[in-house]
Amino acid sequence: MAKLLKAIPAVKEITAGLKSRSGELIQRGITPTLGILRMGERADDLSYEKGAVKRCEQSGIQVRKIILPQDAPQETVLKEIEKLNNDREIHGVLIFRPLPAQIDDSAVCKALSPEKDVDGITSQSMAGIFSGTHVGFPPCTPEGCLELLRHYDIPLKGKNAVVLGRSLVVGKPLAMLLLEENATVTICHSRTEGLAEICRKADILIAAVGKREMVTKEFLSPGQVVIDVGIHVKEDGSLCGDVDFEAAQEIVEAVSPVPGGAGTITAAVLAKHTIEAAERLG
Ligand code: NAP
């Protein structure tokens, strides 16, 4: 049976560290604060927001929510971002995406101050990841995968890491973060030939394809560590990931569960970035 890479022990460790850092900031008169900008009431936004608020509160971070109607015009959204940028009491900003169709996503990303970009949506943050410099922040989900691997002392140096998925939110930044840890990284996507064979050869396999249980036993081999980033709701309302969890449990050395794995650690990373932003800005 594979070892389960559960997020909660890692989250507790991260949160404990953050609490003492936020305590130091508060002593200096700085209350670390996250601004959340949400449009409408999408169920997955609300669910992530709930987790993020809880994690922030546990870490000594205040949250200020800006909620706009789903049909608010672009001009209103940009004005709110400008206010958040100029507000010295706000250190980090989380903007829920995807945005409604009337909003130009790239204009929104461009409008946000890179110093407050705690979820890595600006081009400056992306450049920071690719150049290995600390401009902005990496998106929280890929960094969460790294935190999970770190917590469980999974060695990355010289290891063959395969990232399934090449989105700007998960796959590409994750590949860069793994590279920085000296893994040898392969990025796969929908046109990759011989996908199952490439995945089987991985020491570390990270699935971020957005296809329910696509990673079947043909993709897996003994000794592997598998991180499942996918989140899907099954017909019975339960959650599953991009990986066939039962097959993985039988074959690999360690696998992250869904729920309770990569998704759970993401909000803790958001809190970590907010504290770091407050430290940098303060
Ligand atoms: P995305 O933008 O849809 O990207 C999916 C990637 O997977 C694309 O690069 C796509 O390739 C590739 N792909 C799709 N079908 C494939 C196939 N049959 N074989 C090989 N590659 C395939 O998704 P995303 O935003 O990166 O999210 C991925 C998953 O992570 C989703 O399940 C999402 O719900 C989840 N997610 C979780 C969190 C969290 O906090 N845990 C956060 C964000 C996302 P092409 O580029 O060739 O199209």
Fill in the keyword field for this structure:
282 residues, alpha/beta, single chain, Rossmann fold, binds NADP nicotinamide-adenine-dinucleotide phosphate, 3-stranded parallel beta sheet
Number of helices: 10
Q: Tell me the total number of β-strands.
A: 11
Read across the widest sheet, the strand sequence of neighbours is: 1-11-8-7-5-6
Number of domains: 2
The first-to-last residue Cα distance is 47 Å
Present as ligands are: NADP nicotinamide-adenine-dinucleotide phosphate
Rg over CA atoms: 19 Å
Low-confidence stretches: none
CATH superfamily of the largest domain: NAD(P)-binding Rossmann-like Domain
Strand percentage, roughly? 15-25%
Give the class from helix and strand content and strand pairing: alpha/beta
Q: Briefly, what CATH class of the largest domain?
A: Alpha Beta
Percent helix range: 40-55%
Second CATH tier, the architecture of the largest domain: 3-Layer(aba) Sandwich
Q: Which fold name fills CATH's third level, the topology of the largest domain?
A: Rossmann fold
Q: What is the succession of H and E elements?
A: EHEHEHEHHHEHEHEEEEHEH
Overall geometry? globular
Please state the average pLDDT score.
Answer: 97
